[in-house]
Fold this protein.
Amino acid sequence: MNLNINAQKAQTFDAIVVGSGMTGGWAAKELTEKGLNVLVLERGYEIKHVEDYKTAMLDPWEFEHRGKITTVAAEEHYASMFFSAKEGSQLNFTNDKEHPYIQKRPFNWIRGYHTGGKSLIWGKHTYRWNREDFMANAKEGLGIDWPIRYEDLVPWYTYVEKFVGISGQAEGLAVLPDSTFLPPMAMTAPEAHFKKSVAQKLNRPITMGRVAHLTKPQPWHTAVGRASCQFRNRCTRGCPFGAYFSSLAATLPAARSTNRLTIIHNAIVQEIILDDHAQKAKGVRVIDQNTMEVRDFYAKVLFLNAGTIGSTSILMNSKSARFPNGLGNDSDQLGRNLMDHHLAVGARADIPGFEDDHYFGARPGSLYIPRFRNWGKDKRDYLRGFGYQGGAARADWSRGGTEPGFGADFKKKMTQPGPWKMSLTGFGEVLPDPNNRFYLSPDKTDKWGLPQVVFDADFSANDRAMRKDIMNDGAEMLEAAGFKNVVPYDNPAAHMGLGIHEMGTARMGKDPKTSVLNKYNQVHTCKNVFVTDGSAMASASNVNPSLTYMALTARAASYAVAQLKAKSL
Amino acid sequence: MNRREALSRVSLMLGGTLSAPTLLAFDRWNQTAPQNRINGASMLTEEQREIMARVTELIIPKTDTPGAVDAGVPDFIEIMLRDCYAKPAQDVFLAGLSDLAGNRFLTGSADQQTTLLKQVEAQAIANAKAGSVSFWQLIKELTVWGYFTSEAGVKASFDYQPNPGKFEAIKIKPGQKDFMYGNQV
């Protein structure tokens, strides 16, 4: 009897955080710094910052396939092999063959099951959402209204931005509110020309992409071991300088330094253990992905940060007499309103001239063109809007693969910079739609006996109408700059998920009848469970979402600790 | 200069020092850098290997800098065919080599070989269609990729900068070598 009590004690913490990625790292940092003993459960293998970035410092010739995708890797990364199966970074992406999912409608589910999750491999564009983003649902009568407004998040945006370190240029635009910035990255000569031309002829502002890279590290960055961006642009292999923000480089070291952090790897959370009577979570049941051993861990408060699909799956799989359809699912909203950003659409062009212009360094960032459609007086026949990422660069030696010719002259030509080219890629807002959803398969399981995820979602007529504008407006801007051979493009092979901005499926809202989480990301009907990743989103904006997840997480953690101290949880 | 020394210098330039675990990690990388190798039997005959090597050398010949054969491109192409292409593309590649063998490619003079390859290229361009790949496309792309990512090719061809440390817009002179940063793979 005593033994059992001791065992339970050893596995009891103040808080459990499920997931060690973008938001899990923030939950761990905030909760430990506020004095809680925190257990972080990571379902994947351990990646140690710096020493496990095994390909980060390799030269091109040290890769057996020189970075190309092997047929074996392509089969293992069926969600989207284009970058997740590449030789230099495939260990930082999840092997889909080992972690299968079902596509009732096609879905690119790109994951990072390891320490740091997708914070190790994210695109790093970092933007505040704007005031309209939090009001559009209410104004248009779509989905449900957000229970918070931009103003609720402002102090939390400011708070996380300082710690993250975001390079960018303040512009004073309502459509793209400024963050606290480190110096912006430089533009190439044709990019500066493009910015000027588009401002003059079309009155559209363009700014340098706001990316979470340290261009000028501050003392609080170097204190956790981070250094300046080296402009190698090998980021998806992991950065040994800790120059881009990841939980591995920043939040987890901060949490570790409190001595109140425990991380357990290979720990797949099967379900939340519920005290049905009290309508409170007691802890979680975990399967070791290697040994299959099942263990329980207990805590006063749980933070689900397993990624949009991961967190909602855990809620769905946590069934009890009180919650026969999944924890907190009285509203039947779990899994619904799955959103992403639609992309792989835009325009490209050749840039004449600028022969004596070049750049030194490999820039891990691009230009950003903020939304201008359905903004201010502009009205279109679809709802919401889009922004662009893109840039101008000189073609390199790899153009030789398709350029005609061979022999000594051809060889020499390829050692010199090629012509300038520019490409713009749109990121469009996807609307909440209850029929865009995922659910747990009733019969198909993975090797741990957990139900497989079934995706049933697609782009809508609104998205398709917007994509026409993304192509045409992109082409118009490239033409305004005097660029040639302008080609609009729309890749039909891009499905939902390819944006890797999965959002929704456990949305925040004011009314428990139509939402899963309240305004502090608490499950309405199970108050000591917080969900603070993309699953909480009630709409998708058209800008990258990670900064908003981070702000929501820090805010929720602060609230949770205050509630614990007030004994309200 | 090995990786550890290179990185230590970078860190000095940054005005800081790297932690002991970081330096240990660099040592470990030095020990585990993969070596190119060919496992098992080749899928090519000796004659096919000779033809392939000759074609790659005509695409990127030895000049005042190393050529495709010096840079190990033929071995690289075999690895790529084995590991990165499915049977249909492998068959196209083998058929292309057989066609050249049938045209007595190896016994021709350098000029004759070049003329024949120009015909092969012209036909490939004329018959190109989406969703299919020709022998010429395969060998051309693989030769270019293999050469310009090889140690000999990179060091002879470019201003290789594995750790640029900054990004800035600059002016260049006509004929100046391009930079390479090693992030293309």
About this structure: Chain B touches chain A through 74 residues (CB under 8 Å). Residues 95 and 135 of chain B are 8 Å apart (CA to CA). The longest strand of chain B covers residues 168-171. The first helix of chain B runs from residue 3 to 13.
